[in-house]
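Entry details:
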Amino acid sequence: MKQKPQEDFKDSLLKIRSFLIPDDDEDRVMYLHAVVALLGSLCAFFILEYGEMSLGVMEHTFLILIEKTCVIVVIAYIISRMSFFRGILQKKFTIRNQVLMIAAFGAISIFGTYSGINIMGAIANVRDLAPMIAGLVGGPWIGLGVGLIGGVHRLFLGGPTAIACGLATILAGLFGGLIYYLNKGKFIGIIGAVIFAALMESFHMLINLIITKPYPLALTIVQDLAGPMILANSLGMLVFAFIISNLLKEQKTKQERDYYLDELERHKYELKVAQKIQKSFLPNNIPLLERLDLSATNIPAKDAGGDFYDFIKLSDEETAVVIADVSDRKVPATLLMAVSRTIIRSISESAENPKPSQLVEYLNRLITEKSKSDVSLTLFYGILNLKNKQMNFINARHNPPLVYKSKFKKIISLEKTDVLLGVKKNIKLEDKKISLENDDIILFYTDGIYSVTNKNGKSFNNDLIGEILKKAVHKHLTK
């Protein structure tokens, strides 16, 4: 189906918009440089082609100021990439950074005076641009320092507007710094900076009307220069405010990236510590028992795990089997794993030799009292009696072990409770038991197995685990 003409027109406008207003910050800066270069070239062309007589005093002055503003913006952009300027943006007000900032923008202010045009003894210029920018970025002292350099220099050049213009330049830097102070050290943004520039230049003209004598001369000068100077300084501020905003965005992005990298390194370190703790608490050897084959392995699915297992010989006839999973995968979880294993071993090997339910209830009380994090524990604890071939057990919300009953050639899941250890202090559990026969197989596992996928991207589930268990049994029995 063809698109409607209105939709085609809309798509064309969107393409033009994406070209003129790119999303990438680097492309925007590149576009900005191109616009500034084009604007300066056009102003130079019109000045040379038509001259003051054809354009009129105001138009000719405006074009000259715009051309000089473009030059100043390029110079200021180069300075903005220097380390001392970036240091000021980062609030690193060292003596070196402040002196270099004042000297650099003071020189720009003087250049703004020299690059101006003399009209009836007054100088149409963009001198105030540098102290305004310095004040907005660096605060009162830097703004005042730059303003003094530009203002005192203008004062020594003389002319009917020397005092008024010199004073206005000093106040431009001071007022910019006060805005920085009142805004708690934050840049006021592009729109705020442009409004400030326009108001400051308007105030500059007002000072000329008040101080410059005779008044008719002051009025004539203001009428000829007000428009060009307000527009030129505002345009210069617009461009440079954009540059500053882009630098601040770059700085914020870098800080976020550095923070992310620091967090990543800290996380990696924690995982290494957790891995070492975890490995140190896993049993080194599998016990040899009559009429029973044991095998165990631990492979963390992701970096480090909070899983642990253990075999504890209670007597010649009884052996305790433990498998657990601690939520989270960082150091607190691994420490809880280590503490839990130590408690289980200590209580299991004690003279009382408690039932599974008693041991797990006691363990839960201890870890609930001591743990100050949101880490919890799932646990299976069973006591296997080799003489009567029974296992008494408690499953505290752990993945239910699968039992292959060879006599019936089927798989069953051991019962589990909904109790999660480490959450509620007082819990009540009841022992469960299962009878075992020759060639029965019990498979214990944690939820880490669900993170494993095959070559087709399919994850493990209980049905798949059961199928693998049946195949393993068949292979074992046919040997």
User: Anything to note?
Assistant: The beta strands are 117-119, 122-124, 307-313, 318-326, 377-385, 390-396, 402-405, 410-413, 432-435, 441-443. Residues 16-24 have pLDDT under 50 and may be disordered.
